[in-house]
Amino acid sequence: MSSVITWFFLVMAALVSAAIPIYLWWQKKTASGGSSGNPVSAKNKASDLKSLWEIQEIKNGVIILSGGCRYRMILRLAAADFYLMGKNEQTLVEDSLAAALLGLTFPVQFLTVSEVVDTRRAVRKVKENLHRLAPAIAECALNYAAYLENLSRGKTAATTAAYMVIPYDTVQGFDHALNELEARAMSLAGALQGARIKTEILTTPAVVDLLHHLLNRSRAWRPSDADAAGAMELYHVAERSAVDDILEKAV
Length: 251
Prior knowledge:
Layout: H1 2-31, H2 42-45, H3 49-53, E1 55-59, E2 62-65, E3 70-79, H4 87-102, E4 109-116, H5 120-128, H6 135-154, E5 158-169, H7 174-193, E6 197-201, H8 204-215, H9 223-228, H10 233-250
Antiparallel strand pairs: 1-2, 2-3, 3-5, 3-6, 4-5
Helix pairs in contact: 4-7, 5-6
């Protein structure tokens, strides 16, 4: 009996050894586009958000997926420190969270990401209020701002951020989907309030920042910073100028 088992494993090993080169050749052929003569690199297969996540558009904070009938809204979650609560309060939070999840009538997706601590807003506020401080305190504030800048620039501190994705599929259009998603978000906010969890609906710039972060984990720069700095202003000016030129010619 043992000799039969030994021969069986030897035959299986020989078959696997013979099949590996054939499988690798097939994988290479598939990745290069097959026999169509039009090779497509893996890098170009997911060159934009449409091909990577099927994102067609982001409007009023709502992600519109390919097809135009699938909509997603993202909530940022902020919870109190569970381990700083008393035992009775922890029990209350656990029961409230369980009740909120059991009461869901639609699917949700949780997303947790590690983000570099962004201190630029705090630094900006400190520098904006320097003129209100006494000279000695202003000097301390400048040192504090420099410390925060180095902390952010060095990317040595990180924080964990939690998000919830709410889906809704409909063929009744964007306005109907937006109303339904907002209603679901409000329902979740009320249910999670008992669990000491605050929710915030991400705006369009915040959604873009989150997607950018997921694709560029090591970068602290955000697309919303460029927009706030007027990166799109030239396009708006050019558009107004073009409209003015058309009106002048029409007159």
